[in-house]
Amino acid sequence: MPEAPTQSSSVVALRRTAHVHPARNPGVPFDLAWLDGLRVNQSAVERRTATLGTRRTVKKDAQAAWLLKAVTCIDLTTLNGDDTEGRVRRLCAKARQPVRADILAALGVPPHTITTGAVCVYHRYVAAAVDALAGSGIPVAAVSTGFPAGLIPHPLKLKEIEASVADGAQEIDIVVTREYVLTGNWQALYDEVRDFRAACGEAHLKAILATGDIQTLSNVARASMICMMAGADFIKTSTGKEGVNATLDVSLVMARMIREYHARTGILIGFKPAGGVSNAKTALLYQILMKEELGRAWLEPELFRFGASSLLADIERQLEHYATGRYSAFNRHPVA
């Protein structure tokens, strides 16, 4: 764990001027041998994740710094049926200044030095979000490929990706066909994600596994590896619409697949837990998991994101408590 930083050193570490992605993942040729031996001991995974909150603690100055860092790793998201352009533009304004200026001032953090990692919306609102975020360096992520079920025809999935990229999306969050995972059709999964990768062009590809739907941790491990082999730049737990979304258990398995892929290829792959990460305490557990399993680089938005909407409000509330010693009502910290 990093040492508790002073406020001044925290500010230096947190200051960002633009979002810079690491090198793209070119993928590797399909090879089923990479799945040999990929079986997960669920009991061992549960024992490991159960210790995350007990072996390490982050308090006081260090906790405030880690929570500010967590803000920079949020894909601030609205994926509701009643979304409007006005709501999306308000969300983008919050992404530009996610923490109230008075709280930042109390923490000794200059204004306009903290932004979220991205804004994530449906394709319909990509152009509006790009316009609202112009000049901020904050990328727009679009959910595509028939999100959340991914059951539209494959050519339409590719068209949706291409349309989002044309409207200015720099990141594309795709959903895989769960049937390919559940039936072990790994060639079909590889080919599907490979096509998505090609349709993205220069935009980064984030592959959503829908871990709550694919049933076993061994399936999570195999699907993670196949998506990375096919060229995914990030692997993501969930759409947020499944019955079970991000958990520490599936995140540990996915992190270790990222580590294995890096060992084989030298390529850094990002990770995004999404759905169910709604409070600061849980966010810290995910940050500890990233630090311990993958290293310091995975505490930065280039390699780590939270897919979240309500998380930001709770982090802002915790930061206000740290600055003032008082808890405020949750409704004083609206997301947008």
UniProtKB/TrEMBL annotation:
Pathway: Carbohydrate degradation; 2-deoxy-D-ribose 1-phosphate degradation; D-glyceraldehyde 3-phosphate and acetaldehyde from 2-deoxy-alpha-D-ribose 1-phosphate: step 2/2. It catalyses: 2-deoxy-D-ribose 5-phosphate = D-glyceraldehyde 3-phosphate + acetaldehyde. Belongs to the DeoC/FbaB aldolase family. DeoC type 2 subfamily. It comes from Paraburkholderia largidicola. InterPro entries: Aldolase_TIM, DeoC, DeoC/FbaB/LacD_aldolase. Its EC number is 4.1.2.4. It is an enzyme of class 4 (lyase). It comes from the Bacteria. PANTHER family: DEOXYRIBOSE-PHOSPHATE ALDOLASE. GO terms for cellular component: cytoplasm. GO terms for biological process: carbohydrate catabolic process; deoxyribonucleotide catabolic process. It holds the Pfam family DeoC. Keywords: Lyase, Schiff base. SUPFAM superfamilies: Aldolase. This is Deoxyribose-phosphate aldolase. GO terms for molecular function: deoxyribose-phosphate aldolase activity.
